[in-house]
Amino acid sequence: MTADAADARDPIAGQPAEDLEDIALRDDYALSPKFVAMVVDAADAGDGLRLRELLDALHPSDIADLMGFLSPDYREEVIPWIPPDQLADVLTELDEGVREDVLEEVEPQALAEALQELDSDDQTDIIEDLDDEQRREVLAAMPETDRAAIETSLAYEEESAGRLMQREVVAAPLFWTVGHAIDHMRKPDEDLPELFFDIYVVDEAFKPVGAVAVSALLRSKRDTKLADIMEPVTEIEVDLDQEDAARIFEKYNLISAPVVDAHGRLVGQITVDDIVSIIQEESQEDILALAGVSDVGRDAGILGVMRSRFPWLVVNLGTALFASTVISAFQGEIEKLVALAVLMPVVASIGGNAGTQALAVAVRSLATREVSRANVLRIVWREIRVGLLNGVAIALLLGGVTWLWQRNWELSLVIGLAVLINLCAAALAGTLMPMMLERFGRDPAVASPVLVTWTTDTVGFLSFLGLAAVILM
Amino acid sequence: MTADAADARDPIAGQPAEDLEDIALRDDYALSPKFVAMVVDAADAGDGLRLRELLDALHPSDIADLMGFLSPDYREEVIPWIPPDQLADVLTELDEGVREDVLEEVEPQALAEALQELDSDDQTDIIEDLDDEQRREVLAAMPETDRAAIETSLAYEEESAGRLMQREVVAAPLFWTVGHAIDHMRKPDEDLPELFFDIYVVDEAFKPVGAVAVSALLRSKRDTKLADIMEPVTEIEVDLDQEDAARIFEKYNLISAPVVDAHGRLVGQITVDDIVSIIQEESQEDILALAGVSDVGRDAGILGVMRSRFPWLVVNLGTALFASTVISAFQGEIEKLVALAVLMPVVASIGGNAGTQALAVAVRSLATREVSRANVLRIVWREIRVGLLNGVAIALLLGGVTWLWQRNWELSLVIGLAVLINLCAAALAGTLMPMMLERFGRDPAVASPVLVTWTTDTVGFLSFLGLAAVILM
C-alpha cells in the first residue's frame, strides 16, 4: 500500500499493457534498460500512441525514474504523453532538477487541476519549484481554499516542519467515543487526508492531548471512549527544522505526528513517508559535503555540476599551495637529501587519510546525536588514544620500510616521529573541527574536510621536514 | 503515535516524575546534559531509588540514548533499574555495541519474558545478538510457538527481507466484506500485529492480490467487498536484500508491504519503521566506507575503533609508498630543480580532491539508482566533460600562480598540463571504479577511495615529473 492513495494504478481495468508491465521492471522494481530503450525507440519514431501505451504500463514513481534516465531532449518528447490523471503523482516523485524541466512544459491550467488531487504538503512542494510568473498563474487557476492553504504553507520557513506538514488531519474532541470518531470519518464531505494512520484527540483549545492509531480504533468497541485508548503524542513544533523532525520520528519510531503552532494548537501533521525522503536527502548531503561537492540544487546541466565542484577545488588549490610554501622553506634540506622529497608526500597522505576517518565518524555521530555535551570529552579522549595507537603502529611500519629502502636509521626516526605527530593532529582536527562548526550553528560536514586536510598537510610537511632539518642536517 | 504500541508510556498514571520529564528532554527531544548529569550523580551515590525514579521519567528510546551516553561502568550501574516492562522496548532501541553489553547483564528468564512482548522481527533482532549459550537458554525459556517462529526467522539470510519482516499480518480472503474484516480484527484472541496499517487480501493459495489501508477500511460501509476497494500491492520477496527492500519502500512511498515466499505466498510483512533504520544505516555505511572506516560492528572499545581504521591506513601507506617510488624515479630532475618538489604535491592533491568529488557523486547515484545501464554512458560522458572543464580552469589558475611565484613559464606549462591530465584521470577513476565494483557485485563505496587516490597520486606525480623531464630538462 502506498502512503498516497492517489498513487495507485487502477487495479481493476485489465489493461492491454499487461505484458509491458512485466518487461518494465526488474525483480528489484528498478526500470529495465530494455524498457527504457523501447521508450527511446518510440520517441525516435515520433510514435505518440506507443509512448502513451508504454507510459500507461508504469506506476507514477516509475515514470519519474524514467524521466531521470532520459536526456532532456527525449524528456521533452515524452512529457505530453504522461496520463493526465498521473501527472500530479509523477510531479511529486521527480527529482528537483528534472521537475523544473517538466514543469516548464505543462500548461498552468492543467497543472492547477493536477495539483488539486494532492494533499497540501505535496501541493506546496511543487508550487515552490515554479518561477514567479508560473506560480501566479497556477495559484490564480486554483480554488480559493487551496490557494489560501498553499500561501499559509509557503509562509513557513523552508525546511521547517510547517513546510513539510499537511494541513489535513483527523482531530477528535476528548469526549468522543470510538463510534463518534468512525461516523465522523465516514462522512463523505469531510476534508480528510487521503490516507492516515493516527487520529489526534484534542482539548477545547484544539491542543493535542493524545493519539489513537487507526488500527487500535478498528479493534475497539464503538462505545469505548477515545480518552481510554489514546496514547501520549509526540508533538512537533511548526518552526522545528525538518532534520530535527526526522530525528524525532526515527527516535520514537513514529508513523505520524501532530504539528502544533506556538500556542500548542494542532495545525497539521507530518507522516513518515515524507520523513523517509528527508533522511535520505540529509545523509546524501553529508556524503557530498564531506567530498567537497556543494549543493547547487536546481541546475543539473554541465555548468551546474561544474559549479557544485569548482569552488571547493579552488579552496583546495589554496591549501595545497599553502603546503607548498611550507615545503619551499626547506628547499635547502631537500637539495641536500632528495629522499626527503620522495618520502614527504607519504606523511601528508596518511595524515589526510586518518583525518578523513575521524571526520566521518564525528560527522556521523553528530548527525545521529550520539555525541552531545554529555559525552563529548569521552569521545575526544577516545579519538586521541586511537590516533596515538594507530600513530605508533604506522610509525613503526613506515620507519621499518624506510630503513629497508634508504638504509638511514635517522631518516626512519624522522619519518616515524612525523607520522606519529601527524596522526595525532589528524585525530584532533578530524574530531574537533566538525564539533566546533556544529557549536557555532554551522553544518559540521561543510568546510570541515578542507580544514582537516589543510591541518594534516601543513603538520605533515612541517613535522617531517622540520625534524629532518634538526636531526639530519 | 509510535509504530510499536508497546513503546508507549502509560498515559494515565499521573507519575510523580512529571517535573523530571520536563528536565529530561530538550525542545528537540534530545536528552538534556543536565539530566544525564543527574543520572551520573545518582549512580555515583549508589542511590537505586533515585535511578529508578529518573528512568521512570524516560521513554524507552530515551533510556536507550542514555545508555549510549554513559561509559560502560555507569551503564552497568543503571541497567538493573530499567523498569522491567520497558526492558524489551529499550533493547530494540539500543545500538548494537551497547546492546551486547546490556544483554550480558540480563537474566535469561527475564529476557525471555521481555521478548514475549515484542513482534517477531524485534524478537529475532535481539536473539541474533546473544552468544550461543545465552541464546539456547533464552529460547528454552520461551513458549514453543515463539521459539519456532524465531528459529524460522533466523533461517533466513542476514540482511534479507525475511529477517526484517514480522510474521504477524492481517490477511483476508478475497470474498470478504469490510464487515468481515473488521469483525475478524476485533476477535481478542487473534495473533495480530501490535499495530498495522494495511490488511492484505489473499487468494485461495494465500497469495496477496491486493491491500486495503486501515483508514480506507474505516471509511467504507460494512457491506463493501474488499475486492472493490483494494489496491495493487507491491510484494517483497523473502530473499530480497534489505537495502533493495528499502529502495522499494522509498520509491513507492510504502507504509507496509507483504513479504512472499518463492511460491508467492504471504509469509509476513515489513513496516516502514524498520525501513527508516535501514536507510539510516546504509547511508551511514556509505559515509564511513568512503572515508576508509570499516564496519567492525560489535566492539565499541578503543581496540574496536582502531581495528576499523588501521587496515585502511596500511593500504593507504602502500599506495603512498607506491607514489614515492614514482617520485624516486625522478630524483635527478628534482635535484636539478627543487621547485618540482615544492609543487608536485599540489598536482596530486587537487587530483585526489576531484576524484573524491566524482566518487561521492557516483556512489550516491548508484545508491539511489539514478544510474543504470540505461544511462551509464551519458553519466560517464558528463563526468569527463566536467573533468575537462574544471581541468582547464584549474590549469590556467595554477599555471598563473606558478608563473607569478617561480617566473618560469615552462614550469607553468608543465604544471598546467599535469593538473589537466590528472583532473581527467580523477573524473574517470572516480566514476568508473564504483561502477565496476557494483557491476561485479561488490559494495561500490568500499575500496573505491583507495583505488581513486592511488590513481590520482600516481598520475599526478608521473605526469608532472614526466612532463618536467621532457620539457624542462
Q: What are the defining features of this structure?
A:
homodimer; 473 residues; mainly alpha; MgtE N-terminal fold; CBS-domain; Tetracycline Repressor, domain 2; 3 domains; three-stranded mixed sheet; 23 helices; 64% helix; disordered N terminus
Brief characterization of the structure:
Two copies of one chain form a homodimer. Chain A is mainly alpha-helical.
Write down the oligomeric state. Answer: homodimer
What is the CATH topology descriptor of the largest domain in chain A?
A: Tetracycline Repressor, domain 2
**Percentage of residues in strands of chain A:** 5-15%
Query: Largest sheet of chain A, if any?
Result: 3 strands, mixed
CATH superfamily assignment of the largest domain in chain A? SLC41 divalent cation transporters, integral membrane domain
Helical fraction of chain A equals: 55-70%
CATH architecture of the largest domain in chain A: Orthogonal Bundle
Biggest chain contact: A-B, 142 and 141 residues
- Alpha-carbon Rg of chain A, integer: 29 Å
Task: Compute the number of strand runs of chain A.
Answer: 6
Instruction: Write down the domain tally of chain A.
Output: 3
Number of helices of chain A: 23
N-to-C span of chain A = 74 Å
Description:
2 copies of one chain form a homodimer. Helix content of chain A is 64%, strand content 6%. The first copy, chain A, has helices spanning 18-24, 33-44, 48-56, 60-69, 72-78, 84-93, 96-105, 108-115, 120-128, 132-140, 144-155, 161-164, 178-186, 214-218, 226-229, 242-252, 272-290, 302-328, 331-336, 339-367, 376-406, 409-439, 448-471, and strands at 171-173, 198-202, 208-213, 236-237, 256-260, 266-271. In chain A, the strands form 2 sheets. In chain A, strands 1-2-3 form a 3-stranded mixed β-sheet. Chain A has a 3-stranded mixed β-sheet with strand order 4-5-6. In chain A, strand 1 (171-173), helix 13 and strand 2 (198-202) form a beta-alpha-beta unit. The longest helix of chain A is centred in the last third of the chain and has 31 residues, at 376-406. The termini of chain A are far apart. Mean pLDDT of chain A is 88; it is low at 1-17. At the A-B interface, helix 2, helix 4, helix 13, strand 3 and helix 14 of A face helix 2, helix 4, helix 13, strand 3 and helix 14 of B.
